[in-house]
From TrEMBL, chain A:
SUPFAM superfamilies in alphabetical order: Periplasmic binding protein-like II (SSF53850)
Organism for this UniProt entry: Limobrevibacterium gyesilva
Superkingdom of this protein's organism: Bacteria
Pfam families: SBP_bac_8
Protein name: Extracellular solute-binding protein
The keyword Ubl conjugation belongs to this UniProt entry's keyword annotation: no
Principal location listed in the UniProt entry: periplasm
Keyword list, A-Z: Signal
Localization annotation: Periplasm
Protein family: Belongs to the bacterial solute-binding protein 1 family.
UniProtKB/TrEMBL annotation, chain B:
Alphabetic keyword roster: Cell membrane, Membrane, Transmembrane, Transmembrane helix, Transport
Spans traversing the lipid bilayer: 35-60, 89-114, 126-148, 179-200, 234-256, 282-304
Subcellular location(s) of the protein: Cell membrane
Gene Ontology annotations of biological process type: transmembrane transport
Species of origin: Limobrevibacterium gyesilva
Protein name (record): Sugar ABC transporter permease
Gene Ontology cellular component annotations, sorted alphabetically: plasma membrane
Length: 446, 316
């Protein structure tokens, strides 16, 4: 008689184990209870591995049973998970909240003033974008995380910019704390000239005019540099202003030198334009460079990341932070706060940042001196100027700031600013674009 | 104890029970309809839990204010109707659904006829091949289409360039992008129409064509007076079904254009996602997604009533 080696019970167990593969279940003595946390699934797999190790260390030390899930942002799965958990009032205790999501869930989040107080005391201040997105009515509703937090300044091809546009980006922003005269001359007019020169040789700037975040962040920073606010801090629609007209006039000139299909760019299109060698410059975190390092080393060796140009109102760097927040319905708030605080300790943040080659930016000023940005290559120092440094004279910015957050989130997610440029590219006049934007904004301020 | 009386008493009890008229409850439980309902109960509960409850919840959500703290009745719908972008979404959804369904029905009808005339084994092979677009998961096949239309590496543009033509910004110009999303939907949905129409064609009795031929009917007359009347029910149901599904389409637009350029390809579902999930206004998103519900429900009522009537006429 044949004897089956795998019983049904065993097969069932195997099935359950296989289904649970994306989850990490860290079991310890569990004296301090259970905790579940939903992290952002990092682009770089090693980013998840180091996080797992740190969570395991916390679990071991504090005798907490931790379940860590890594939820992808592909297809907005993380946003869907947040929306579902907020509606169901159950799910993870702690979740990763992309930039605007703290504001979208204000009523469901546990205040984090105590954690932020201790971290701030230890590691210094956070920038204005972090405060704008997570400090609501004087209370911190989430802790800014480094995991996924990024700047999206220009990443250009050293040789093409030098040869075609006479722009020596390495001299302009060297890999050392030095302010240069060339940096002062890096204005939006200079960028326009460079864009024109590069377009002439078929290496157009890969700046998108779509509705995804890369397009919104880059164009949003241009608006800020011209002082062009669509809605002001009081919630008044200010699209019919001189500053907006000025930025649209600039946009009219710029869009001529962007790719014809810039309006259909998504967040991967600009990366591909750079990696394939078609583009002289994109606005992106160093993920494009990191992929080029793997797939097109010659391109990666010719890349340099540096701050955006300056405009009449200053130099604004697109900044997109991630947060860790805890639901009010969490069953283990003490352990949740302890875990967040543990993960935001300098050593842990630096270890994670190093593994992802500097991609993850720490939110606290006192952590902006990690060695990783000096060391990664090729070429050496390529991302030295990726984090905001004092000598850059720049400011972190998120598109639509300073509009009231509930209006700003709609301006951002509906891509109002890049769409205004897209309309210019399609041949619409400035008054037509302004009229369209005014109507849209009226809808956002309901 | 073991005398004849006691034995007969024991035997008589079940006999009396069998003879007595069944109680009300037992009668109820023995009814075929009751058994049918009980057996269908797991499915009914499943539908109630996964369809009816979420639908009612969505309707409730659509009547709340942005922070979900106040009942606003139909306020969200009234607000939406005043917005230019939403008017554009209504136009696009109608354009997308109506154009795509007409093209799918037309192509499906033609292909079904061609298929019907292919003999035996070959027909099975062709039928299988033509069903492939419908069998592949839509998100996956749309991704392949996206690569064909991609701004940087469009395969179509590569071919055009090889032939000496200029590149076409497939997804970068409004009408091009609208054409692209409709084309992909037609590519995906035509096999469904084809297989339904083929089944309908096979059920038309051959004698009707023979009788029509004896009366001197040509191919066009046979099509108009025999085939189409015999297929009316299946055409009505497939068009209705496809219209509902196409109005609710999400994957194609989400993957190909995400609603762009300049909102010119947004449909109800993608716009609802953008407003509800991405911009954090869940009640308004729910209103967008439910907007077509009454219109489609009324259409479904009339179409299905027509089908029932025709079926009854045929039966009579």
């Amino acid at each position: 008689m044949l004897k089956t080696r795998v019983s049904r019970r065993k097969a069932l167990k195997l099935g359950v184990a296989a289904a649970a593969l994306p989850l990490v279940h860290i079991r310890t003595a569990g004296a301090a209870g259970k905790l579940s946390i939903g992290f952002w699934d990092h682009w770089v797999p090693a980013g998840n591995d180091v996080m797992r190790k740190q969570v395991a260390a916390f679990a071991e030390k504090n005798k907490v049973e931790v379940q860590a899930d890594f939820i992808t942002s592909v297809g907005n799965k993380n946003l869907l998970t947040l929306a579902a958990e907020a509606q169901a009032k159950t799910g993870h205790d702690v979740q990763a909240f992309p930039s605007w999501e703290v504001l979208n869930h204000v009523n469901d989040l546990e205040p984090m003033d105590d954690v932020m107080g201790r971290l701030g005391e230890k590691y210094g201040a956070v920038n204005r974008v972090v405060e704008y997105l997570a400090k609501i009515k004087g209370h911190w509703l989430a802790v800014p995380s480094s995991s996924g937090t990024q700047n999206k300044g220009p990443c250009g091809r050293i040789s093409i910019l030098k040869d075609a546009a006479g722009l020596d980006v390495q001299a302009m922003y060297p890999a050392r704390p030095e302010h240069t005269a060339l940096a002062d001359a890096w204005t939006y007019d200079a960028m326009l000239k460079a864009a024109e020169a590069c377009a002439k040789i078929g290496k157009q700037f890969g700046m998108g005019l779509g509705q995804t975040s890369d397009s919104v962040d880059a164009i949003g920073s241009i608006f800020a540099a011209f002082g062009a606010e669509l809605v002001n801090a009081k919630g008044e629609i200010t699209v019919k202003s001189d500053a907006v007209r000025q930025v649209l006039e600039y946009g009219q000139r710029l869009v001529k030198f962007l790719p014809a299909d810039a309006v259909s760019y998504d967040d991967a299109s600009n990366n591909r334009a750079l990696i394939s060698g078609q583009s002289a410059l994109i606005w992106n975190p160093p993920s494009a460079w990191a992929v080029a390092k793997r797939d097109a080393l010659q391109v990666a060796s010719d890349c340099w990341t540096f701050p955006p140009p300056t405009g009449p109102k200053g130099r604004f760097v697109p900044y997109l932070p991630y947060f860790w927040g805890m639901w009010k319905f969490s069953q283990n708030k003490t352990a949740g706060k302890e875990l967040i605080e543990f993960l935001m300790q300098r050593d842990n943040v630096e270890a994670r940042c190093t593994v992802v080659e500097g991609y993850d930016l720490p939110p606290f000023d006192g952590m902006l001196d990690f060695k990783v940005w000096e060391e990664v290559q090729p070429p050496k120092g390529t991302v030295y100027n990726y984090p905001l440094r004092k000598h850059h004279n720049s400011m972190a910015h998120i598109a639509a700031l300073p509009a009231p957050p509930d209006v700003a989130v709609q301006i951002y997610n509906r891509g109002t600013m890049p769409t205004m440029f897209a309309k210019l590219q399609s041949g619409q006049s400035i008054p037509q674009v302004v009229a369209w934007a005014a109507d849209e904004l009226e809808g956002f301020t309901r | 104890m073991a005398d004849g009386t006691s034995i007969s008493a024991n035997l008589a009890a079940p006999a009396r029970a069998a003879m007595a008229p069944p109680s009300g409850m037992r009668k109820f439980m023995r009814r075929r309809s009751t058994i049918a309902v009980l057996m269908a109960m797991p499915l009914i509960l499943l539908i109630a839990g996964l369809v009816i409850w979420p639908a009612i919840y969505a309707i409730w959500l659509s009547m709340l204010n942005k922070r979900m703290t106040q009942f606003v009745g139909l306020g969200n719908y009234a607000f939406l109707l005043k917005r230019n972008t939403f008017q554009l979404v209504i136009f696009q959804s109608c354009l997308f659904a109506v154009t795509a369904v007409i093209l799918k029905a037309l192509l499906g009808f033609i292909v079904a006829h061609l298929m019907h005339n292919i003999p035996g084994k070959n027909q099975r092979i062709w039928r299988g091949l033509l069903l492939v677009p419908w069998v592949i998961p839509l998100a996956l096949s749309t991704l392949s289409w996206w690569w064909l239309f991609d701004p940087s590496y469009s395969a179509f543009n590569w071919i055009l360039n090889s032939l000496g033509f200029q590149s076409v910004p497939w997804l970068g110009v409004g009408w091009n992008a609208r054409f692209a999303v409709i084309a992909v939907n037609v590519w995906f949905g035509t096999p469904f129409f084809m297989i339904m129409y083929l089944a309908a064609l096979k059920s038309v009795p051959e004698q009707l064509y023979e009788a029509a031929a004896i009366d001197g009917a040509g191919p066009v007359q046979k099509l108009l007076h025999v085939t189409l009347p015999m297929m009316r029910n299946i055409i009505a149901i497939t068009v209705l079904f496809s219209l509902i599904v196409t109005f609710a389409d999400f994957d194609i637009v989400r993957i190909l254009t995400a609603g762009g350029p300049q909102d010119m390809t947004h449909l109800f579902a993608t716009y609802a996602f953008s407003v509800g999930i991405q911009s954090g206004d869940i009640p308004l998103g729910a209103s967008v997604s439910l907007f077509m519900l009454p219109i489609l429900a009324v259409a479904a009522f009339f179409v299905l009533r027509g089908v029932t009537r025709r079926t009854q006429e045929i039966a009579a």
